[in-house]
Amino acid sequence: MQLHPDEMAIVVKRLKRAQGQLGGIVRMIEEGRECQDIVTQMAAVSKAIDRAGFATIAVGLRQCITDPEHNTMDVASMEKLFLSLA
After folding, report:
1. In whole angstroms, what is the distance from residue 54 CA to residue 52 CA?
2. How many degrees, rounded to 5, is the angle at CA 54 between CA 71 and CA 72?
3. What are φ and ψ of residue 73, in 5° steps?
4. What is the pLDDT of residues 62-82, one digit of tens each?
5. With 80 as the cut, is the pLDDT of residue 49 above it?
6. What pTM value is reported for the model?
7. Exposure of 35 by Cβ count < 10 A (0-12 exposed, 13-18 middle, 19+ buried)?
8. Cβ atoms within 10 A of the Cβ of 40, count?
9. Alpha carbons 39 and 34: distance in angstroms, whole number
10. Which of 17, 7, 6 is nearest to 61 (CA)?
11. Angle at 59 between CA 84 and CA 22, to 5 degrees
12. In the chain, what is the straight-line distance between the N-terminal and C-terminal CA atoms, in Å?
């Protein structure tokens, strides 16, 4: 199933934010910042990526519900994708 680009804009925004955070973490490591600060930022990036994944699943579910004739993904496949994020 292909997701509509307009609906995926929020996911792209989240991923770009996570990309920026990840670059910040690399700089923190290179600058010798404290372990606690680095790990805190890593947790934030991880959460941002998880949210992007869940938002992607939500877009897919909405598309399947609103236009089931043009979306071939079944409930079992969506469930498998959802659980892969856990």
Report:
1. 6
2. 10
3. -75, 130
4. 887 777 777 677 778 878 888
5. yes
6. 0.78
7. exposed
8. 12
9. 9
10. 7
11. 60
12. 21
* The two three-digit tokens of residue 1, written as one number: 């199933």
CB atoms within 10 A of CB 83: 9
In Å, what is the CA distance from 59 to each residue of 7, 39, 83, 86? 7, 30, 16, 18
Write down how long the chain is: 86
Q: How many CB atoms lie within 10 A of CB 74?
A: 11
Which domains does the chain carry? 9-84 (1.20.58.1000)
SS3 at position 65: helix
Residue 85 near residue 22, CB atoms below 8 Å: no
Question: CA-CA distance, 24 to 45, in Å (whole number)?
Answer: 10
